[in-house]
Each structure stands twice: as structure tokens, then as C-alpha cells.
Amino acid sequence: xxxxxxxxxxASIIFVxxxxxGTIMSAVFLPEFVSVGxxxxxxxxxxxxxxxxxxxxxxxxxxxxxxxxxxxxxxSVIAWLTFDIFINCIIGLTPFVDNFTHxxxxxxxxxxxxxxxxxxxxxFFGMEYGCAAKSKHIATxxxxxxxxxxxxxxFSIVLLEGDGTTSPCTSCRYASCVPFPPWADxxxxxxxxxxxERVTGSAQRNTQxxxxxxIQIACPDGESITINLEEDAVTNSKSLLEDDLPxxxxxxxxxxxxx
Length: 259
Fold this sequence. Notes:
Elements: H1 2-6, H2 8-29, H3 39-55, H4 57-60, H5 68-91, H6 99-116, H7 131-161, E1 200-205, E2 212-218, E3 224-228, H8 238-252
Antiparallel strand pairs: 1-2, 2-3
Helix pairs in contact: 2-3, 2-6, 2-7, 3-6, 6-7
């Protein structure tokens, strides 16, 4: 819709810049993950649609231009767009779906849309378009352009100044992944959002019995702990212990997130 109404150039600019902005924002807040795909640009186009609605709000819901049925149609478009954003945000709370790319792309797309998308000409419809309205329109376009560029620069600086492994906001990870179901204990959740899946450890074998009776785990925060296995957990299978490392991490490590 953006390309058809506002042209290939505007749609291309919004898509590319939104993809870039969303990817940089993801790299800042989720430095331990690599996100790929065009979702940042797609959400950027959604943000541009919101900018289009914002800039032409008075025209879309003008009693002078639209009857009740036409207004209802416009409201239905907004409702479906809002529903689409909501559903994708909920899906983004599952593992391997990056909400920061989505929301970052949509934010940059909205700001780019303010500066690149053409506003409907009110004079064409016989509506007054005074100096104050023109000034507001020009200020909005410059605001969108300047703020979108400024945000990309700021997040790029934060990314370059970081160590590549630490997020400036560790609790912000919950905006992109939430353990589910929240009412279940750690052993019965459908998925986790911690860093225990990447822990390493070494098993300590009793030379007399040949059984592994203890393991040493490097917790996600770098702390090393030694766990003496319960009697029913003692085993001679090293692969079995490796599979259980995430569970031991969640049970014994004080910090389950990398710092």
C-alpha cells in the first residue's frame, strides 16, 4: 500500500532505513543473538502507514469529506493495523523472534514516514490550509527526519562503545522473550529466556567407581561452581550430564543471564 500510494522511492527509503535502525537496536539490546530477516523493514512500512494516518487524520475523519460509512471503514483499517501490531508483539515474546528489530523498525519507519510520505492536499478538497497548518506540516517533516537520523546515530554509538556481549539494559530482554508459562516452575516451562542453554561444564569422575559424582559449571555470569551430584543423579554417562547442564545452571547458579 505504501509503495502504491506514495511511490517506489519513498517505500524503498523507509524499508532500508527501518531495517538498518531495527537491526542496530537489536544488536544493542540483544548483543548475544544474531537476528536475520526483513522483519525490521516490514515493520518499518507498518510504521509508515501509522505516520500516513497520523498526518492525514483530520482529512480521514473529516465530516466535510467523509460520511459515516467511510469513517467506519477508516476505523476498521486502524483496528486491523493495531491488531496486527499487537499479535506480532505477542509472538515476539517467544524465543527466536526479535521484538527489538520489529519495534525498532516500526519506530524508525514511523519517523521516516513523517518526513518522506506526501500529505493529502487539503486545498484540493476545498479545505482551508493556512500558514499555521503549513508551518506545522513542515516542522513535522523535519522532526521525523532529524529524530530518525539522531536515533540511529545514538544507537550506533552505544553499539560501537559496547563490548559486544553486554546489554546496556539487561532487564529489557523481557521485551523480546518471556519464560512461559509464567505460573509453571522452572522444570516445567515450555521455553526459557536465560543463558543457561550455553553454559559449559566439566564432569569429575570417581576413579574407584568410574562414576561421575560431581560437575563444575561455568555460570552465564562467569562464576564457576562445583556441584556434588545427588545419589540418584550419579551416572557413568557424560552425555547425560551434558544434557542436564541447563537444569543445574537454573538450580544452582545465582545469575542465569550473561552480564
